[in-house]
């Protein structure tokens, strides 16, 4: 991986956490995989194999350039082309807030994958709360868009996501809350800007 590509990857601490959780030689499906750098990194460092799903033409081309197996498909339409337990991990990184059919997508992830890894910006972070109290929609490093051009449609907090998991019988296997690359343990829903979860369908 080129120094520029590695810099882009290491600039996303949630991706570093994902790589640490994926076991060696695992099969991986990355939803909304972008340019495929995460899958390339997992292949090089963990021996992972798998596919990325991406809708944007330019990102599909970037995946091919990065040597990543990619399928051009809209994940909003579901994962019906994949059998149950087809992959060890299904990943959705910083995309949960941008999908419209959140509930069915998460449940499909847990059908297709033995485990799922989900990361999202925490709308409960104190900076977001402060901007809302000031009468403005939040703009930050993890929420960089203005209200009029944002792709985000379903922002949530750490508490919201954990309530969702409880209501749907989803087991939380691991949780990591981060801010600017550092782990947050004290008051994570207030002080953490990015949440990373490893989850599994309840037995």
Report on this model:
The chain is an alpha/beta fold and 203 residues long. The protein is built from 8 helices and 8 strands. It has helices at residues 3-10, 13-21, 37-46, 57-65, 102-112, 126-133, 158-167, 188-191; strands at 27-31, 49-54, 70-72, 87-93, 113-121, 170-179, 182-183, 194-201. The protein has an 8-stranded mixed sheet with strand order 3-2-1-4-5-8-6-7, sandwiched between helices. Strand 6 and strand 7 (182-183) form a beta hairpin. The radius of gyration is 16 Å and the shape is globular. The termini are far apart.
Topology:
Blueprint: H1 3-10, H2 13-21, E1 27-31, H3 37-46, E2 49-54, H4 57-65, E3 70-72, E4 87-93, H5 102-112, E5 113-121, H6 126-133, H7 158-167, E6 170-179, E7 182-183, H8 188-191, E8 194-201
Parallel strand pairs: 1-2, 1-4, 2-3, 4-5
Antiparallel strand pairs: 5-8, 6-7, 6-8
- N/C terminus separation: 39 Å
Widest β-sheet, arrangement of strands:
3-2-1-4-5-8-6-7
Tell me the major beta sheet: 8 strands, mixed
**Low-confidence parts, pLDDT < 50 over ≥5 residues?**
none
Discrete helix count: 8
Query: In angstroms, what is the radius of gyration?
Result: 16 Å
Shape: globular
CATH architecture: 3-Layer(aba) Sandwich
Structural classification: alpha/beta
Helical percentage: 25-40%
Beta content comes to 15-25%
Order of helices and strands: HHEHEHEEHEHHEEHE
CATH classification, class level: Alpha Beta
Determine the mean pLDDT. Answer: 91
- The name of the CATH superfamily reads Vaccinia Virus protein VP39
Structurally, the number of domains stands at: 1
What CATH calls the topology is Rossmann fold
């Amino acid at each position: 991986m080129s120094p520029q590509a590695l810099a882009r990857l290491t600039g996303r601490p949630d991706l570093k956490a994902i790589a640490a959780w994926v076991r060696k030689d695992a099969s991986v499906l990355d939803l909304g995989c972008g340019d495929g750098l995460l899958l390339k990194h997992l292949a090089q460092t963990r021996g992972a194999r798998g596919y990325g799903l991406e809708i944007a033409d330019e990102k599909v081309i970037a995946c091919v350039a990065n040597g990543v197996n990619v399928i051009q498909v809209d994940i909003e339409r579901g994962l019906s082309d994949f059998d149950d337990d087809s992959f060890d991990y299904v990943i959705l990184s910083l995309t949960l807030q941008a999908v419209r059919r959140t509930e069915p997508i998460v449940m499909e992830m847990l059908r297709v994958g033995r485990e799922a890894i989900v990361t999202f910006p925490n709308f409960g972070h104190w900076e977001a709360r402060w901007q809302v109290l000031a009468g403005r929609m939040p703009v930050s490093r993890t929420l960089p868009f203005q209200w009029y051009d944002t792709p985000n449609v379903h922002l949530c907090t750490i508490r919201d996501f954990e309530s969702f998991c409880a209501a749907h019988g989803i087991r939380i296997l691991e949780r990591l809350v981060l801010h600017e690359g550092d782990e947050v343990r004290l008051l994570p829903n207030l002080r953490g800007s990015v949440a990373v979860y490893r989850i599994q369908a309840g037995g």
